[in-house]
Amino acid sequence: MDRLFRLCGLDPDELAEALENNPRAYMAVKGAVAEVHLHKYLIEQGNLGHIVGLKSAQGDFDKDFYIQLPDGREFAIECKNIEVLKTNQNKTSCIEYLRYLQLKEDIFEGQDFSNISDYTLADLKVLHSDLPQSFRESGIPRYEYSASKIEEKSLAGGLSDSDFLAQFDNSPLSIDFQRTRNSNNKKGVNADPKTNRFYTLDEVDIVAACLFSRTMKWEFVFGSKSSLIIHPKYKGLYSNRLVLDSKKWHSNLMDVV
């Protein structure tokens, strides 16, 4: 409590309210929170003897974590948050989210969303854009809505990894796969301002994808280099748009090393 107050001058409830009302700020905080949860997971792997060396990023362009296995192999791990389910992509996604908010958040009183043919996509997008920021942007209401679309919310629920991830086949899990800061260090790659944040093929070994935005659980699936997608235009770089293949991602880090 004292440390939190020194950092921002707010008590926990006040800070929670500030983040709930400013989803963009919360999204940035969520990235740091995911890294803490991943760090705890990696420490557990160390306690189990699966990892003998663990180091966190020391500079802006370091990977988030570096691990060493008992056999001497080393891996660079990048932590990423899965993107939240889109709620204004088409008529179905728009109206389903508006119905959800009507039921859960007590808004749109008297509005009839029962017949999708009563609305054009433009009508629904106007309703979506008029929502308060806390409902419109990437925040808790949208995360809860995303989680409501799947039956099994946790990797610990008993499903195999592939069956758990298959729940998202109709709306695949995706990552905005690029660094948060520009880098001009593109070894052997033609300089193009559009690629300043893209990852080169030799700098990431494993991606840890945090599922919270789609499940409300601070759990991870892990993908190796074979799970990543090379950019179709820039062959020395990974694509900044990463869609997860349910057969190539695993809940156990050891399954990808």
Number of strands: 7
Q: Could you say which overall geometry the principal axes of the C-alpha atoms support?
A: globular
> Helix fraction?
25-40%
Which class best fits the helix and strand makeup?
alpha+beta
Query: What Rg do the Cα atoms give?
Result: 20 Å
Biggest sheet descriptor: 5 strands, mixed
Which range does the strand content fall in?
5-15%
Please characterize this protein's 3D structure.
With 257 residues, the protein is an alpha+beta fold. The chain has two domains: 1-84 and 151-257, no CATH class; 91-137, no CATH class. It is 34% helix and 12% strand. Strands 1-2-3-5-6 form a five-stranded mixed beta sheet, with helices on one face. A two-stranded antiparallel ribbon has the order 4-7. Strand 1 and strand 2 (65-68) form a beta hairpin. Helix 4 crosses helix 5 (121-129). The protein is globular. The mean pLDDT is 92.
